[in-house]
Amino acid sequence: MLLSGCPPCQGLSSARGDRGKENDPDAGSRDGRNLLVLPIAEVAKELRPTFVVVENVPAFLRRRVWDPDSTTPLSAAKILCNRLESDYRVYAAVVDLCEFGIPQHRSRAFLTLVRKDTDAIRVLKRTGRAPFPSPTHGGPDSPDFVTIDDALRESGLPALDAGSAEGAASNGHPMHRVPVWLDRRYEMVAAIPPGSGASAWETDRCGLCDAKGIASTEAVCPKCQSRLLRPTVRNEDGSWRLVKGFRSSSYRRMDPTRPAATITTASGHIGSDRTLHPWENRVLSPAECGWLQTIPSSFQWGDSMDKWGPTRVRQMIGEAVPPLFTMLHGRVLAALAEGSDVPEALSQEDGRCQKALAKLDG
């Protein structure tokens, strides 16, 4: 039997500064979702499955919360492990899922707890393996990573353009549509060279005059004084300044020669982390985000786009564990459940496991 649980990451992720410091249990405890590991522990004690698998962002292993029993500052992951340690052995790994053929960088922490009285634990002890699949891509003896260019072209989805309602949707593909930009957002994105992986922050020419090579610190053109095609905000005195923060990732095209950036719940926002299409003037569509998450194109979404809206569909896709990795992980667990050796499993000495355990116990 397998018990799988994936508590929401919003209260744990380090992507937003309002989460507070990871070693501050008061900050970590402000979001009650950070203790949703407790029901997982209760169900595991009741059902006693062979495996308990939990996935989350890497901060899951580190961010401190107050343990409601001991009133000591621990990570939610450690609280879960402590509650099950009498019956389960803990294995942990932090992996970038692009190493498993998934066309996006997606760093995630996985806990797999194996019940101590099973054949699976005996196999793991004898072979020195961990209950995780070994990477299939990116190593010296394996294929290179799958790039976003590879994935988007393989999807066969037609081109879109955010400049008009007609261009932003595809007939016959209800999941393949994007927000329409009828403002300067379109101009900013269109000014970023296709296939460059560059951002609007790096656009060094004026959209109105022939000025070029404009310094990266400028918000207006030094020649004609027009607002540049960069993210800007108006000051109280009417002047313009550059938006502060996230310059390395926001308003940036994905690099077609690399795996995509992490598909998040905010995939429809231009100011989020690398959401722009590599060569078209738009963000990725929900259909493309699902494809990059390795959700099969045959998956039936029904009327979800009309019933729930694109924002909620994007959130569901961004929260998902890519099915390709789940399949690889499941094959390892299925073999272990039968008491079979798993030469394709990760070594317990692998750095992905050792570093994860160090973070868990740190």
Question: Can you put this structure into words, describing what you see?
Answer:
The protein has 362 residues and is α+β, with helices and mostly antiparallel strands. It has a domain at 2-142 and 321-361: Rossmann fold (3-Layer(aba) Sandwich). The protein has helices spanning 25-28, 37-47, 76-84, 119-127, 148-155, 184-190, 286-292, 304-307, 310-319, 323-337, 351-361; strands at 2-5, 51-56, 64-66, 73-75, 88-96, 107-115, 129-133, 232-234, 240-242, 345-347. The strands form 4 sheets. Strands 1-2-6-5 form a 4-stranded mixed sheet. The chain has a two-stranded antiparallel sheet with strand order 3-4. Strands 7-10 form a two-stranded antiparallel ribbon. β8 (232-234) and β9 form a beta hairpin. The two termini are 30 Å apart. 39% of the residues are buried.
